[in-house]
Structure formats: structure tokens, C-alpha cells
């Protein structure tokens, strides 16, 4: 019998990414405190939050495979939070202009029946081209990426901000590393290249 899959996320981008694997799933928003711990590295923060998101839904979905993911951007070793508004996003992109920003995407696949997590962190770097304040302001008003780490949407006009990208899986930059997720699913017996039960449905809560 196919194990039911839960995506512990309210992110529309992660939902759309997971749909690419043609797996039925339920998407549920986890309620966790995303504040960093003092001296926690971006890599450590992304991994911890991904696992906490999955674990937060384990009691409600006790026999499921729960996917948690979280992303932390790092500029000069300092985490870049979601800006939340135009002014903070403008400041973030001004600081990133002409520089390299590395994104750490934590991934956790939790078997809630056994409370056994499989985890990974994928890194992906973007190299910003030099940008004027006018260019940044125009971009932000187009994509309005105020809920995105790094203050851009690479799947939209944000791709024009970069000189080059560097990493194994561009999906990690959007928020869910599908290559690594496919590998983790394989470890629990789910082959995404095999047909799934026809009566299963994708649901969002």
C-alpha cells in the first residue's frame, strides 16, 4: 500500500515543485518558531527548521511520510531573512549587488510511524550582477518577493538579477530540492517513475 505523503509547508512554490513528481500529497502549514539560535550557522538553521516542520505534523499524521523543508540565505556568512516589505527587500538587494549569496535548503523526510527522519541540506549559490537602486526598485515592484529569502523570485523576473548560478539542483533555489527528495523517497520504497494509486488526491489545508 502506498504511504500517504504530507508536505509540511504553506508555500505555494513548494507545492508547485512537489507536483512535478506526480505524487499525491496533502499540504499542511506547520506552526513552528523559526527564530535562529545564537551562533547557529545558516546550514544548521535550515536543517533544524526543516526537521521541526516535519515533526510538528507527526502527531496529526501518525502513519505518513512528512516532507519538511526550509531555506536560509547567507550573504558574507550572515543569514538573510525574508524581508517582509519593500524597504527591507531594497536594502537586501543593495547589499547583494555584485556579490555571491548562498542558499541552504534543508530537507527532511520523516516516517511518522517510526519517527525516523532522513535529512539533507542542499546548497546553491547565485552571483548577482551589479545593480542600481533604480533597477532594484523596478524589479521589486514587478515580482514583489517580500516573502522570499534573498528578496527575489528566480522563477520570475528575478532571474535577470544574476550573472550566473552555481549548484546541483536549481529547484533548491526555489525552495525544494527535488533531486535529493527523489533519492530520499527511494530509500523508503517510493519510486517516482512508477504509477501511483489512481484514487489518491492532492489536497491543501
Key features of this structure:
single chain, alpha/beta, Maf protein, eight-stranded mixed beta sheet, 29% helix
CATH architecture: Alpha-Beta Complex
Helix residue percentage: 25-40%
Count of discrete alpha- or pi-helical segments spanning 4 or more residues: 6
SSE sequence, one letter per element: EHEHEEHEEHEHHE
Q: List low-pLDDT spans.
A: none
- Measured by DSSP, the beta-strand proportion falls in 25-35%
**What global shape is seen?**
elongated
Question: Within the CATH hierarchy, at the fold level, what is the topology?
Answer: Maf protein
Number of strands: 8
The CATH first-level class comes to: Alpha Beta
Number of domains: 1
What's the gyration radius in Å? 17 Å
Q: Label the structural class.
A: alpha/beta
Euclidean distance between termini CA atoms = 24 Å
Q: Averaging pLDDT over every residue, what do you get?
A: 92
Structure, briefly:
This protein is of the alpha/beta class. The chain has six helices and eight strands, in the order E-H-E-H-E-E-H-E-E-H-E-H-H-E.
What does this structure look like?
By secondary structure, the protein is α/β, with parallel strands linked by helices. It has one domain (5-204): Maf protein (Alpha-Beta Complex), CATH 3.90.950. The chain is built from six helices and eight strands, in the order βαβαββαββαβααβ. Strands 1, 2, 3, 4, 5, 6, 7 and 8 form an eight-stranded mixed β-sheet that branches. A hairpin with a 2-residue loop joins β3 (65-75) and β4. The mean pLDDT is 92.
Amino acid at each position: 500500500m502506498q504511504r500517504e505523503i504530507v508536505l509540511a509547508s504553506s508555500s505555494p512554490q513548494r507545492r508547485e515543485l512537489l507536483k512535478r513528481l506526480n505524487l499525491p500529497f496533502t499540504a499542511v502549514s506547520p506552526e513552528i518558531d523559526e527564530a535562529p539560535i545564537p551562533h547557529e550557522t545558516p546550514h544548521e538553521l535550515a536543517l533544524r527548521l526543516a526537521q521541526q516542520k516535519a515533526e510538528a505534523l507527526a502527531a496529526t499524521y501518525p502513519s505518513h511520510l512528512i516532507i519538511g523543508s526550509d531555506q536560509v540565505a547567507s550573504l558574507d556568512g550572515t543569514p538573510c531573512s525574508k524581508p517582509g516589505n519593500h524597504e527591507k527587500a531594497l536594502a537586501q538587494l543593495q547589499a547583494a549587488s555584485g556579490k555571491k549569496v548562498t542558499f541552504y535548503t534543508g530537507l527532511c523526510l520523516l516516517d511518522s510511524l517510526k519517527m525516523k527522519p532522513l535529512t539533507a541540506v542542499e546548497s546553491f549559490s547565485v552571483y548577482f550582477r551589479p545593480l542600481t537602486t533604480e533597477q532594484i526598485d523596478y524589479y521589486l515592484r514587478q515580482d514583489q518577493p517580500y516573502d522570499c529569502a534573498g528578496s527575489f523570485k528566480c522563477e520570475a523576473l528575478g532571474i535577470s538579477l544574476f550573472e550566473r548560478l552555481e549548484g546541483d539542483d536549481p529547484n533548491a533555489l526555489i525552495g525544494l530540492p527535488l533531486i535529493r527528495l527523489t533519492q530520499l523517497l527511494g530509500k523508503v520504497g517510493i519510486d517516482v517513475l512508477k504509477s501511483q494509486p489512481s484514487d489518491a488526491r492532492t489536497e491543501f489545508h
